[in-house]
Design a protein that fits this description.
By secondary structure, the protein is of the alpha/beta class. It has a single domain (9-210), classed as P-loop containing nucleotide triphosphate hydrolases (Rossmann fold), CATH 3.40.50.300. The protein has 8 helices and 6 strands, in the order βαβααβααβααβαβ. The chain has helices spanning 20-31, 46-51, 53-77, 93-101, 104-117, 134-144, 154-169, 190-202, and strands at residues 9-13, 34-36, 85-87, 126-131, 176-180, 207-210. 30% of the residues are buried.
């Protein structure tokens, strides 16, 4: 099922464990769109961050910033009119994580670097924001059993979910589809994926909501 022509650049976003990469892959597979994914496994500081957040927050954040800027710069050079692209991150998430993880002088330094380096990223034509309860996030993180994620405190996932909720409450830079993913399974249920694709195709307003039973 192809994406509507007006959606050349679609971003799936949400907190850790919500399933954004899974959904981005599923939309790409179903529509034939190109795929642009983060690569957290390439960040050598990430496992150490979850063991000692205070010490490793800044190098972890800067590594992700440089990685994301490189990916967005490559997207700027691609032909979005030739082939749609689906991503599992937006550049604006980087300062969101920075404000959550960095303190005082480190945050000031990060903000200077971000302001200096930030490229002119193309605005998404659609953002799909995946929500889930903290209990669901904890269960999904535990189930996928990535070694370094076993050290993620439940309180961190809760704080991250709240940070995302505040960010998207006032987000207006692109059309936004808010998806309650607690009862949706885009891997095992093709029906769930098709329902979501149909909802994407039917979007008319700047902000809509989708969940099973809604």
């Amino acid at each position: 099922m192809k994406l509507p022509d007006k959606y050349r650049y679609v971003v799936v976003e949400g907190p850790i464990g919500v399933g954004k990469t899974t959904l981005a892959r599923a939309i790409s597979d179903a529509s034939g769109a190109a795929l642009m994914l983060e690569d957290p496994g390439a960040n050598p500081f990430l496992p150490r961050f979850y063991e000692n957040a205070e010490r490793y927050a800044l190098p972890t954040q800067l590594f992700f910033l440089f990685q994301r800027i490189d990916q967005v710069a490559a997207l700027n050079q691609s032909d979005l009119f030739r082939r749609a692209t689906v991503g599992d991150f937006m550049l604006e998430k980087d300062p969101l994580f920075a404000r959550l993880n960095l303190k005082d002088e480190e945050l000031k330094l990060y903000e200077q670097i971000y302001t200096h380096l930030k490229p002119q990223a193309p605005a998404p034509d659609l953002v799909v924001y995946l929500q889930a309860t903290p209990e669901t996030l904890v269960e999904r993180v535990q189930r996928r059993a990535i070694a370094y994620e076993k050290n993620i405190p439940d309180a961190y996932l809760l704080g991250l979910a709240e940070t995302y909720a505040r960010f998207f409450y006032q987000y207006s830079d692109a059309p936004l589809l808010i998806v309650n993913s607690d009862r949706l399974n885009f891997v095992e249920s093709q029906d769930d994926l098709m329902l979501l694709m149909e909802r994407i195709a039917a979007m008319r307003g700047p902000r809509e909501f989708f969940s099973l039973g809604a």
